[in-house]
Write a structure and sequence with these properties.
single chain, 2 domains, three-stranded antiparallel β-sheet, mainly beta, globular, about 170 residues
Length: about 170
């Protein structure tokens, strides 16, 4: 299976799931008294119905992070956290998608296989605010092709965005 090898300085973490999704996320937050830089490496295993984390760390000046796309065999790192999801969770029909309406635009997002992400971020710094919207649709067409659509916009005070769950 395909996975990631994440190397921080000389420490290596390997992760992958046969049926599911994994991601490496690096977050930088510098706001007021908060000054954070973190990395998270985890995912969701469909077959086991659980979330897995191999890595949740702070990063520091001088750290070097290398992320390699690799073929994962039996070398998966021991997870630092595994969270089971109960089978009683509501199962959505596969034809459900999202529709974003913002500033007079309507952006539909329907996928057969893949993921949809909406990220709205407000950065307040003294007398200035920056408000960003990212809407990302990733469709896995087959094992070879991926279609990615991104909508990005800057929002202002008073802007309204609506997300509808639709078929």
């Amino acid at each position: 299976m395909i996975g990631f090898e994440v190397i921080i300085n000389k420490e290596t973490f390997v992760g992958g799931v046969q049926d599911g999704v994994i991601s490496v996320i690096i977050d930088r937050l510098l706001l007021g008294s908060r000054n954070e830089l973190t990395i998270s490496f985890g995912g969701y295993d469909v077959k086991a119905n659980n979330s897995i984390h191999w890595l949740k760390n702070e990063l520091f000046l001088g750290d070097k992070i290398t992320i390699k796309v690799i073929e994962v065999m039996d070398n998966i790192s021991i997870p630092i956290e595994t969270k089971s999801h109960r089978e009683t969770n509501f199962k959505h029909p596969s034809n459900i998608g999202l529709q974003l309406s913002v500033k007079g635009e309507v952006i539909p997002a329907n996928i057969t296989k893949g993921s949809i992400h909406l990220i709205a971020t407000v950065l307040n710094d003294k007398n200035k605010s920056e408000i960003e919207l990212d809407f990302i649709i990733i469709e896995h067409i087959d094992n070879e092709d991926t279609s990615k659509h991104c909508y990005k916009n800057t929002l202002a005070l008073g802007d309204v965005l609506t997300i509808e769950v639709k078929e």
